[in-house]
TrEMBL record:
Lineage, highest ranks first: Bacteria, Bacillati, Bacillota, Bacilli, Lactobacillales
Keywords of the record: Glycosidase, Hydrolase
Name under which the protein is recorded: Apu
One Gene Ontology MF term: alpha-amylase activity
GO terms (BP aspect): oligosaccharide catabolic process
């Protein structure tokens, strides 16, 4: 044990939306370098950058056309080297987003592959014959429609794409592909980066392509059982990671394992297996079963966090991924609506932003904070459905319209749930361009919220709460201490952290109402209380917590 990332506090930078340095409305690498002094005072020591490689930007950089080049919108290789060395000079680590599952259709490999089966690059991708004018199977893409598309240049064959049709999947059965990806990773590791976030790695293996997935519908069906978490993923991952760690043993491998259950996460983070050092699963956030409104798809209707389910999930993950396995702690990322919108309280936005942070990040695990959450930002708004440029939004809107929804209601629902409205430029200051850019930003999102400068000047801000929280998080009690949920009331999220000599009790009122908790005898005389949020009133044997209020009690001797 004892890797640097055991104490990592990761901040996810969405490069296009962080800071524009050259006035073209797009955030860039030089912008990040300019703002490097922002992180240490906040308590962050690691930056994860969403993809920065050369890309036609069909999927904001996840469609890579050159794994060895920086996208010109974001800067140059020189800007990159400067960013890394300036970051290191400040003790900050850099984690890059590595896209393994697919490339852009503009990537030279795919352009070569289009020459047909005789071309050596043809087998870098996944192809199949149709049947009687039909697609090879009924599997559906995450981005809507089928996973299969035909290219006019290649007769009778379809290529496979789990995501957008301009993002063909790589064929990981091909050892040449596996070798190429190791080469790419080592190239960046040699350039000094400290870690890799492995994009969508759970999809590297696919089942036999010549089978349909059972469904009642006629259209394509997202068939996770055919292309998520198949056993071969683990051998591909192990080979890939071994190929990097041989020369770069300290590189932090953070896997994106969207649909991984806790047991799969345990597999992927098996100690000494050269797989992931930690994974991010989207299964942390079960939602309350929705009243059956089947006419309108649920994907763009806000769903409330199911708190009981969440307590169970956290317990499962905390108790299963015991040390030396690691887990990640996060509330959001670029693929989901912001936590303030999804989980926070409308009546108590400030308090709930702070209390949710305390709740999550003092647990056992590596915090991964989505940029802007330290300001308590909520989802921004786009002015029209067309601005989303997303066929799944169109499908939702059509169904909602047919069910009699007003245009305003449809737009409001999409704004509150879409990933794009969670990717707004970071507001640095008041005034024109919000200190992000001097011109209109690349994404026309209207973002509410108090900018960085104002929050840094206000000791009571969400920003300052994060600062105090991350300071506390660095204590061994909160990195290595045992975790146990104390499920004393439905309105309460409470847990203890325990080491041999110390114990902390974290209490969070997750309701919009004032609540009183009778404290167990062991907690009636804590040595200290930290991070108070909202109103916390102590009585002899109880504590009254105002709506969305929270507190951390600490004591020296340990009781169980
Ligand atoms: C991951 C990314 C997502 C991207 C997809 C395809 O899920 O987080 O943003 O669209 O992979 O690369
Ligand atoms: Ca720029």
């Amino acid at each position: 044990m004892g890797e640097w990332y055991d104490n990592a506090i990761v901040y996810q930078v969405y490069p296009k939306s962080f800071k524009d340095s050259n006035g073209d409305g797009i955030g860039d690498l030089a912008g990040i370098t300019e703002k490097l002094d922002y992180f240490t005072p906040l308590g962050v020591n690691t930056l994860w950058l969403n993809p920065i490689f050369k890309s036609p930007q069909v999927d904001n950089g996840y469609d890579v056309s050159d794994f060895y080049g920086i996208d010109p919108q974001l800067g140059t290789m020189h800007d990159f080297d400067t960013l890394v060395s300036e970051a290191h000079a400040r003790g900050l680590r850099i984690v890059l987003d590595m896209v393994l599952n697919h490339t852009s259709d503009q990537h030279p490999w795919f352009q070569q592959a289009l020459q047909g089966p005789q071309n050596p690059y043809y087998d870098y991708y996944i192809w199949a014959n149709g049947h009687a004018g039909q697609r090879p199977n009924n599997w559906g893409s995450f981005f809507g429609g089928s996973v299969w598309t035909q290219h006019p240049q290649v007769k009778d064959r379809y290529y496979f794409h789990l995501f957008e049709r301009r993002m063909p999947d790589l064929n990981w059965r091909n050892p040449l592909v596996r070798g190429e990806m190791i080469k790419v990773a080592n190239f960046w590791a040699d350039r000094g980066i400290d870690g890799l976030r492995l994009d969508a790695f759970i999809h590297l293996a696919k089942a036999d392509l010549h089978q349909n997935y059972p469904t009642t519908g006629a259209g394509p069906v997202v068939a996770e059982g055919m292309f998520a978490n198949l056993p071969a993923v683990q051998s591909y991952l192990a080979e890939f990671v071994a190929g990097i760690k041989a020369d770069h043993p300290d590189l932090f491998i953070l896997g994106e394992a969207a649909s991984a259950t806790v047991n799969l996460a345990a597999d992927y983070t098996r100690p000494h297996a050269d797989m992931a050092d930690a994974v991010i699963s989207f299964r942390y956030f079960p939602t309350e079963p929705h009243a059956a409104r089947t006419a309108v798809p649920q994907n763009y209707q806000p769903q409330r966090l199911d708190w009981l389910g969440f307590k169970q999930v956290m317990t499962d993950w905390q108790q299963t991924l015991l040390a030396p396995r690691r887990l990640t702690l996060y509330w959001g990322n670029h693929d989901m609506a912001r936590v303030a919108t999804r989980v926070g309280s409308r009546r108590y936005p400030q308090r709930s932003a702070k209390s949710l942070a305390t709740l999550m990040y003092l647990q056992r695990g590596i915090p991964v904070l989505y940029y802007g959450d330290e300001l308590g930002l909520s989802n921004g708004t786009l002015a029209s459905l067309a601005a989303f440029g997303d066929p799944t939004v169109t499908a939702f809107a059509n169904a909602a319209r047919a069910a009699g929804w007003s245009p305003e209601r449809i737009l409001e629902n999409v704004n509150a749930t879409h990933k794009l409205t969670a990717r707004a430029p970071l507001p640095w200051s008041d005034g024109v361009g919000h200190g992000f850019s001097t011109v209109a930003p690349w994404l026309a999102v209207t973002q509410e919220g108090t900018p960085v400068a104002d929050q840094m000047a206000d000791a009571d801000s969400v920003w300052h709460h994060y600062q105090a929280l991350f300071q506390l998080k660095q204590q061994p009690l909160f990195t290595t201490g045992a975790w146990q949920l104390q499920d004393w009331a439905p309105w309460l999220y409470a847990y203890t952290r325990t080491t041999e000599h110390e114990q902390a009790l974290i209490l969070v009122n997750i309701s919009d109402r004032k609540q009183t908790l009778t404290l167990p005898a062991a907690w009636q005389h804590p040595a200290a209380s930290k991070l108070p949020v909202g109103s916390v009133a102590r009585h002899t044997d109880s504590v009254t917590l105002g709506p969305w209020s929270s507190v951390v009690y600490m004591k020296k001797e340990t009781t169980n």
